[in-house]
């Protein structure tokens, strides 16, 4: 059998099995050594093929697609540093539990470590950041090897999607010639047996486990339920039901899908602003915390746990230890929505005055946060999006200050807005590309991003030249790294601060927009900002709204808000202590 026939059928069977196992989206960064994979994916004609010439951008673009579809997305690249450029996205996917199937082409074994071009060591290139690595066999078309190719394609899909999602990596050594022959018979393996998987559908805690939890919580009065970032479609409703049945405050992270009016009786959105004060954290005496999802964006939550001995119950789908407080905890494993439902069946009674106190604290903090303000600030930029953003759309939030401002200023709403962010590794890279990946579904995406993050991933805008993607970009331009203004680095008054941390880039973003044929508006006033948002949502394609702010003024404005919230919070806590 010829090399070309072996190559064609080996790759054809592999790719057919990916489709049979549920893959629909493939992101390809073109290269020579990956020709067998790229051409075969295109020839199959059933996949959504996305081409991105920048592998770093492509990796994050794929994470955005996977976030939106909740399905594994394939990445294809050539050998050498092309594969290395996926690394940041793979790290993010590992920590954010995003299913990616990374297919890297490679030189055959005889061309490795001999000075051949584009030949680096790709064996276990991504270390422990992938759930599974496999060096694929050289192509053959014997029945056993064709079934081997299918088995590994199927395994890649299901390993990436169960039980905790994450990336997998398959490395393909290819000898030349690299061009498949699709005129051959049975390229796709039409008579192949399709593997089936039967994953568990629900989790049932035993009666003894439930009884143990009941005993541990018996007599406790002041508990908090926390819902952090997650991607479980059914979790939010079950956690809300648990909080309502137990009548406990529910701290809803902005990435929890719980900041809506249906739960305003128990949902506390302003816990981050309330707990910023160390005095407040010393006065609230929390007996226990039940947490679903990852740790919240809020740093004061972590500080509350670190400064006090609070009994923690952490619910996760598998044996993991997402507990950065480095305190003791009880771990409950299973499908989080099922666990929440079973916990709600326990007949527990807690301090109702405790919930009432948190409702009062939340109401008071929200009144401070929504006070009328004439100047367009970074916090008000969030409120503007919440006011104008269309119902049933997506908001993607950059790291550093944007996600923290969303945590603070995104209050309960009657709109159904899905909020997402790359909170796995908390990096600023690839934010723009991830948002564009989410827009491939056809649903409008709004991206809130800072100027440094935007410039860091600006190559992602190349995708807008080739695909119809509806994205509204709200760009906070404060001439540098605004988050550092809130950190100790800014208080040292070092002569090196601006060079090392402020890092102003002085880019004219109107010219950036012109380069990519993007609609551009720059605003400095509230009414103009709202008008720009309305115009953006009325049109297709990508639009860029630049919001100019001042870093120093932004810090002062935030601090005044937090000081006012602290003052009102301490008053309420004193009243609560005197009355109850």
UniProtKB/TrEMBL annotation:
For activity, the cofactor(s) needed are: Mg(2+); Mn(2+); thiamine diphosphate
TM helices/strands, residue ranges: none
Give the pathway annotation: Quinol/quinone metabolism; 1,4-dihydroxy-2-naphthoate biosynthesis; 1,4-dihydroxy-2-naphthoate from chorismate: step 2/7; Quinol/quinone metabolism; menaquinone biosynthesis
Enzyme Commission (EC) number: 2.2.1.9
Keyword ATP-binding among record annotations = no
**Which leading EC class covers this enzyme?**
transferase
Alphabetical UniProt keywords:
Magnesium, Manganese, Menaquinone biosynthesis, Metal-binding, Thiamine pyrophosphate, Transferase
Q: Which HAMAP family match?
A: MenD
Family in the record? Belongs to the TPP enzyme family. MenD subfamily.
Can you state the subunit structure given in the record? Homodimer.
Q: What's the protein called, per UniProt?
A: 2-succinyl-5-enolpyruvyl-6-hydroxy-3-cyclohexene-1-carboxylate synthase
Q: Which organism is it from?
A: Gracilibacillus thailandensis
Classification of source organism = Bacteria, Bacillati, Bacillota, Bacilli, Bacillales
